[in-house]
Amino acid sequence: MALRLPWVLLAAAASAYRLEVPFWTDDAGFCEPLPGLAPHNHRPSGLTPLTVFEGTTLVFKYSRYHDVWEHATAESLAACDFDTATMLADTSQGGGCTNDANLSCIRAASGFEWHSMDKVGQHFFSCSVHDHCPNGQRLEVTVLAKTAPVPTHPMQVVVPQWTDDAGYCKPIPGLAPTVHRPSGLRPITLLTGQSLLFRYSQHHDVWAHPTLEALQNCDYDSAVQLAGRSDGGGCADDLDQACLAASDGFALTPTQDEMYLSCGVHDHCQNGQRLVVTVLPAPCPHDEMTDGDGAADADEQQRRNSAILMIEGLAAANAVLLMLVSGVLVLLCCVLRAVRSTHLGQARHGGGGAIPSFNRLDFEMQPGAPKPEAV
Ligand SMILES: [Cu+2]
Asked: Lowest CB count within 10 Å: 114, 141, 200, 232, which one?
């Protein structure tokens, strides 16, 4: 099942064992009404499925307006049938914040932890409050055995929702109402050889900024346009997911280890249509634990418990954290690789250069996913 997802991201975001489920709320999602759906139905397909290795802890952080239930089957989840579901955490266990839009409170909350040890298989989570489940607060989690092979890496990574409309859907305190993703898109980390695919309507384009600072300032003085409005597929409407999914889009093979990309149309960059892309060396997925190196065993164990993460790209709250954490850990990862390779005298594929985690991020709406029963 993991292989059907469009892309794999190698990153260090997860600090191996803990993964935050982004935006456990029915508010985060596409911010314009979706054709045929109730205006508050932002995620008709639910949260993007998440796959982790056994041992990973999922952290649900949420306001007092949500809870966490587990359904026994995919059908029960799709139907938001709580008769056969079990409550795992009540409205107070997500951290106790009183406002979904208070991103700093949510970010700082301790949250509800779900431990995946001895839970290999499929798990189905939802929120039972009001109509949150039918509105998309549903999550499928696959727990892989520790010994399961790391899934292969598709060569092309689809950039999620290249628009300024997809994001948190209520005004965020201190920000303009149009700012849905104050931290920009969740950073994307590619492996060498992978390329990016931008699919977007005629209302957007793609620019490259020379520095992170220029990106954050939406400074176009020295930016270069990589693709025009018609290059993303030519669809007329951001909301026409079928058109977007069928379009060729604009493929970009990164030319630098870090790229700073944005949309130059109107205020889209300021509103969060910004993306940092990092390119890392391709890892060997079959690095083996080194016997007789006790100091490295715990380290290796963390790596083997690394997570494959598939989440929505609309998680503004987590984006800041992720950007910081992944930046630090990617650096750490590189240092570790270098140190271990040198120390163990091994070639990259010999086992010394393992990476701390694999994250699989899939930000796209899943056109084939089940529609909610009621909206
Ligand atoms: Cu745009």
From this structure: 114
Ligand 1 centroid, distance to 367 Cα (angstroms): 22
- What is the residue whose two structure tokens read 């920009």? 184
74, 76, 71, 56: which is closest to 14 by C-alpha? 56
DSSP 8-state code for residue 104: H
Distance CA 237, CA 178 (A): 18
Q: List 60's β-bridge partners, or say none.
A: 21, 112
Rounded Cα distance between 140 and 55, Å, is: 17
User: May I ask the CATH architecture of the domain 11-149?
Assistant: Sandwich (2.60)
Q: From the CA of 160, how far away is ligand 1's center (Å)?
A: 13
Q: Give the Å distance between the CA of 12 and the centre of ligand 1.
A: 28
Distance in Å, CA 188 to ligand 1 centroid: 18
Helix, strand, or coil (residue 320): helix
Give tens-digit pLDDT for 252-284: 999 899 999 999 999 999 999 999 999 988 765
- What pairing do the DSSP bridges indicate for beta strands 166-168 and 28-30? antiparallel
Give the chain's end-to-end CA distance (angstroms, integer). Answer: 27
What averages of pLDDT result for each successive group of 10 residues across the chain (375 residues)? Answer: 31 57 88 87 89 94 96 97 97 94 89 96 98 96 91 86 91 90 92 94 98 98 98 94 94 94 97 96 53 39 36 33 39 44 30 27 29 27
User: Cα of 334 to ligand 1 centre, how many Å?
Assistant: 33
Could you give the CA distance from residue 53 to residue 197 in angstroms, rounded to a whole number? 27
CA of 198 to the centre of ligand 1 (A): 12
C-alpha–C-alpha distance, residues 227 and 269, integer Å = 15
DSSP letters for 202-260? TT--EEEESSHHHHHTT--TT-EEEE-TTTTEEES-TT-HHHHHHS--EEE--SSSEEE
Give the domain ranges of the chain.
11-149
pLDDT of res. 285: 52
pLDDT at 322: 38
